[in-house]
Amino acid sequence: MKFPGTRLLARIMLAFVAAVALAVAVTGCSMFEDAGKSDTAKSEVGECINVISSSAVDSETEPVDCSSEKAVYKVVQTHETKTECAEDYTSYEETLNGGTTAFLCLAPNFKQDSCYADSMLSGYSFADCASADASFRVIQRIDGQADELLCGAEANKFITVTDPKTTFCLGDPKA
Question: What is the mean pLDDT of each run of 10 residues along the chain (175 residues)?
């Protein structure tokens, strides 16, 4: 016995299956590949990241608005495999079952008059200037130029980034 509308339902289901198959073919399954990635790993070039906590083997991060003082890094490159980042960038790698699922090259995005912690093992993170964790304060941020000679006598260190060209003049966090 046939029920009215069963052919219509069958056609709708076939159309739905065809649409999903087309979406998978067009996107290369990226909607399924991204499902296991963290929000940080899904970040795109130009977006910023806050480092909540970190160690040599693991970190807790989150995407944040680039105008936030906690936007420690800006994404400058994204890759799906492990890649060599430029010398003035920091890398972020996310793995699953021993394979790389996301690899980001990150440039510092420090804010003038803010303080940061610097660790050889885990990179930079935002720090309150009064805390013992604070390694330096950004005395001056100069966008559009990568030249340490622009830093004044108040600065005792500097960081330059070639792309995007930026100079960070650094000093004592307690000053």
Answer: 45 44 41 61 88 70 89 90 87 77 89 91 88 95 95 93 93 88
| CA neighbor of 106 nearest in space, from 125, 131, 133 | 125
DSSP 72: -
Q: How many C-beta neighbours within 10 Å does residue 120 have? A: 6
pTM: 0.72
Q: Kind and range of the H or E element at 51?
A: strand 48-54
List, edge to edge, every strand of the sheet that includes 59-64: 59-64, 48-54, 73-79, 99-108, 90-96
Distant-in-sequence, close-in-space partners of 66: CB < 8 Å, separation ≥ 6: 46, 47, 48, 74, 109
Could you tell me the maximum CA-CA distance found in the chain, to the nearest angstrom? 91
What are the structure tokens assigned to 164, written together?
A: 């995007």
